[in-house]
Amino acid sequence: MLRFLTAGESHGPLLTGILEGMPAGVPLTAADIDADLARRQQGYGKGGRMAIEKDHVRFAAGVVAGQTTGAPIALLVENRDYKNWADKLIDPMTTPRPGHADLTGAVKYGYRELRLSLERASARETTMRVAVGAVCKRLLAEFGIRVQGYVTAIGDVSADLPPVDAAQYPARFDAAEANDVRCPDPAAAERMHDAIRAIIQAKDTLGGIIEVAALGVPPGLGSHVHYDRKLDGQLMGAVGSIPAVKGVEIGHAFEQASWPGTKVHDELFAENGELRRRSNRAGGLEGGITTGEPVIVRAAVKPIATTLNPLQSVDLASGEPKATDYERSDFCPVPRGVPIVEAMVAIVLANALIEKLGGDSLDEMRPRFAALRRNRLEDLPMDNRPWQFNYEYS
Ligand code: EPS
Q: pTM of the prediction?
């Protein structure tokens, strides 16, 4: 089983992560990870902090001569901004921002200074998730699995993205990376850019929707047999843990909740002994198990809680009503959030793959992957005769 921990505060010296359970023999360089860290730093609507940071990962353990060893991988990313805070006299923060962890963190941990909540709740922490996710993407790539995403909505602007076959997603990924809002529909991308510009001028914030597609995922990852082994539940939990994400769906689940069943489910047919689906409205998961179709995870991102135009709150020091103070932040984190959702999806899928294939090394996993049961009639021999339960229970 793959496990990971992160530690690090937004303005502390370092962000650190430990990833345990990665098989040996996976080729891995800092450049593989830095590419995704750079993507997390780019996107229209970002805040001023990204002009200070240039996130770069260093391996302190578990990677030798460009390959994983099977030992826990220790990852470090320096906070360049730390030097600006290390000796600074910091003004007290006593007015919680509605929607942020300022107040809930103080109630939970008894903080006498709200910045202690902010420091760990900040989306700065997602840097390390992206780093861990990039390691997992590297493993998945060895099996032809690709996890990538894009923006489908910002504020009230929605992209026009009709259902596509697996083969058409790479073009969609490329189209998204070609603009600064990471939306594959160029006309919508322009309107999204305008919407973000307007929200910056209005001193407010905007949320949106991020969609991630995992391609090449074999059927049979996850399980229907127990709640905590259902892969859809694992994906929703992992993606729902991202700061500002308030909703997660597999495929277009919320929209389909109002459709009749015969319009929702993906009809099956057999072609040359292969079982195929006419559509992928299930988002690549049935019964908590992957179907072999692209796994589609969608995240609703709320508008960030730090708004230049203040919200009404209470000064906890005086008990008096007070408007919130502004903290440097993003105006719209949605374009930058794409690699974060990708990372959480990649971590869950890498874990499911390791669970399915076992193996301490990539070499051991490869033949097991090749031997997996697939959506083929020859892989599914049926007894095709009447039978009885015959439980020995009285
Ligand atoms: C972020 C770093 C933070 C915030 C932002 C994301 O840096 P700073 O507080 O120094 O500006 O810009 O955090 C939040 C969105 C938040 O709500 O806390 C980053 O690296 O992504």
A: 0.98
